[in-house]
Backbone:
């Protein structure tokens, strides 16, 4: 097998609009949106009559894409959780940025939950962790 690249990362949310605006605010651009239904979605959702609304977003530079999805059928099953970074499973995405101090200042002014403020990691990176809608964890990193 020869892996070429990651195409996208899927994130399931209850509030699609809030998640969309959060990532747009971080610099992602909307590439498309719509409704998903049909045999394939039924299979992957393991539910007959599955239905979701999706938004595809692209990071600057085009190397990373996100697929945000809200399921209509089956209806939301979970509530927002404050996921810990050390929990099992996929827990965060990391975005490489320039000007992390100014970015974090702006995010704080917008009321974004910065739960680990900017810190110097081994004189190699400045890192920061924040929570978006529904507890989505984003790590910002700036190479030093």
Residues:
């Amino acid at each position: 097998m020869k892996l070429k690249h990651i195409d996208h990362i899927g994130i399931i949310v209850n509030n699609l609009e809030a998640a969309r605006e959060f990532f747009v605010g971080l610099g992602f651009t909307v590439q498309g949106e719509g409704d998903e239904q049909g045999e394939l979605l039924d299979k992957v959702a393991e539910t007959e009559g599955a239905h979701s609304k999706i938004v595809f977003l692209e990071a600057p530079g085009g190397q990373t894409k996100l697929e945000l999805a809200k399921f209509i059928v089956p209806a939301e099953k979970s509530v927002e959780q404050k996921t810990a970074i050390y929990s099992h499973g996929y827990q965060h995405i990391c975005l490489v940025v320039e000007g992390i101090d100014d970015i974090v200042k702006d995010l704080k002014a917008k009321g974004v939950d910065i739960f680990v403020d900017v810190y110097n990691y081994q004189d190699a990176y400045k890192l920061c962790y924040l929570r978006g809608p529904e507890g989505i964890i984003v790590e910002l990193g700036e190479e030093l």
